[in-house]
Amino acid sequence: MRADRLLSILLFLQQRGKMTTKELAQALEVSVRTIHRDMDALSAVGIPVVAERGKAGGWRLLDDFRAKLTVLNREEISSLFVAPSLHVLQDLGIAGQARLARQKLMAAMPSAYRQAAEQIWERIYVDTSTWRQTTDRGRFFREMQQAVWREQRVRIRYERADGHIVERKIDPLGLVAMGSKWYVVARTGEGMRTYRMSRIQAVDRLEETFIRPASFRLAGYWHESKQAFVENLPQYRIEVELSPAIVERLRFGGRIVKEIQTDAPLPDGWIPATLWFDVEQEAAEYVLGFADQIRVRAPAALRTKIIQMAQAVLRHYGRQMDGQGELQLP
Predict the structure, then answer these.
(1) Total tally of structural domains belonging to the chain
(2) What is the pLDDT at residue 230?
């Protein structure tokens, strides 16, 4: 959101020539203090914003930079009209404003580029939701969103992956949407941490603010931490033979299996393959779900586990059906 605000400041100054700090704060619905920090950020990256003192003073851009700002090519303008993810905008509560902003931008752009923008809008749509969309932003999304905007410290009660509830005091630096899930990236007394919003059990916004680290970049931090997380995930490899009837099904719907590598078919038509999972339990459940369509070659311990699971299923349903003449176990 800060990048959007900085761009908005540049566009305001481009259109109006000069604006006071108070006018910018009112237009962007932020504090005067925030505008001063934004101007420092613009100056730090070499954008020539200057402040004029006096009754008729205000912020303005140097004339040569104002001219450069409006020179957008066809591709740059078109890129602004790639449809954003609707469910993310809805979660943030700005879907209506985004639609209105696009309409205003469309009306203001040169007519020569308007058709290209309309073509992009009608031909590309980004949908990051799932087929059966479920809300996974948590009960306290709005409170956390406000804390992020206001740089307000909060105390949370959080359910860890192991089910334990812990209490943490955090400085929420940003929100990240990944698929249909939302996360808050925060600074804590123990360093940077990421919390899944749906696991937050309570949020208490404290009467304390924090100073955002000047060097912190949310997108860069997320990509680095995500890469580190993926690299540290456990891997469980199995060697199997696949019935030809299910190969395409595995490739199309491989949501649990992480990777599939196949070799040339055997004389009986079955296909040797290597599959990767996170853990043994996932592999066993996956293979068992295909009944007699997958033959496990290695590891031997996995075959034993699958047999034990199959026997447990037979015993479970055998007890339910015994006496009804439908299933009798030896």
Answers:
(1) 3
(2) 76
Looking at the structure, tell me whether residues 68 and 108 fall in a common domain.
Answer: yes
> Residue 329: inside a domain, yes or no?
no
Task: Determine, yes or no, domain membership for 308.
Answer: yes
| Residue 131 in domain | no
> Looking at the predicted structure, is the pLDDT value of residue 144 above 90?
yes
Q: Are residues 116 and 145 in the same domain?
A: no
Where a domain ends, among 190, 206, 230?
Answer: 230
Q: pLDDT averaged over the chain?
A: 82
Q: Could you tell me the pLDDT band of residue 131, with boundaries at 50, 70 and 90?
A: low
Whichever domain contains 159, its CATH number is 2.30.30.520
pLDDT in the model for residue 261: 80
Domain residues for 241? 236-321
Give Cα separations from 186 to 34, 141, 191, 197 (angstroms).
20, 14, 8, 12
Q: Residue 3 — pLDDT band, cuts 50, 70, 90?
A: low
Share of the chain above pLDDT 70, in %: 83
- CATH number for the domain spanning 51: value is 1.10.10.10
- Which one has a higher pLDDT value, 172 or 42? 172
Mark whether 70 and 27 lie in a shared domain. Answer: yes
Give me the pLDDT at residue 306, please: 93
